[in-house]
Prior knowledge:
alpha/beta, 9 strands, four-stranded parallel beta sheet, five-stranded parallel beta sheet, 42% helix, Rossmann fold, 2 domains
Amino acid sequence: MTHRFLKDDQAPDVVLITGISGSGKSVALHALEDAGYFCVDNLPPELLPEFLRLESGRDRHVAVAVDVRTAGSLPQLVPMLPQLRAEGVQVRPLFLDATTSALLRRFSETRRPHPLTKRAADSGQAQPALVEAIELERELLAGLREVSTVIDTSELRPAVLRTWIRDLVGARPGALTLVFESFAFKHGVPLDADFVFDVRVLPNPYYIRELRPLTGRDAPVADYLRAQPEATDMLEQIEAFLRHWLPAFEDDQRSYLTVAIGCTGGQHRSVYLVESLARRFDGHGTVLRRHRELDAAA
Length: 298
């Protein structure tokens, strides 16, 4: 039986937070709670439709965190999402991820057991090593990751993650949100990137003494790169590629598209390209800027 929760113009805003243990789900949930969301942690997936029916008469935003602690019923979530949207619920699934090395470091620092290790111990089974537990969790959550907006928290401080979460949920629902993110290749490619462009072939302002301490957001660096034909060509070709393919992603009902621009240090060239592209696409739905290395250092 199909239930319609609300009229179309009253559709509730529901943020569904999932992800790998240790990737920052608690930080994300607290950020939404501070932003006025009613938050529920570790709700069994089979209870989600009934919970939303109870919420349908209330005028408030809702955030629900679901993780591997309810592994047995997690597969139900993937087919449940389109069903909920068809019934009038505006669901925004966010998936937090991090590299295995970052997760190992965090578990070592907190000395907390991985949920799958604890579950094995409680059931009397042989406990998997931490790396094995992390990889098993990735397998269990792979389906959810495919249908969610992914945020790579490997290099993010909690304060930066809170800002990024608020930016994402503040985006206008129903239209594709275009995210431009600069990064440094020496710190790894963002796991949440849909497209990655390598701009290390461009002239590097780092080797000009007066530009070295500046960033791609500063006018002298922007003026320098704007005067380089290679930088202009790169900018125009990336723009043309995105304008050609954006309609296809919108037709595919994508909510978010993350375009990552990488250079060596994530300070000059990639930052300039992100700022320039964001200005060129301003007005095309919601456009967000991220500067992974600059935000981490702030």
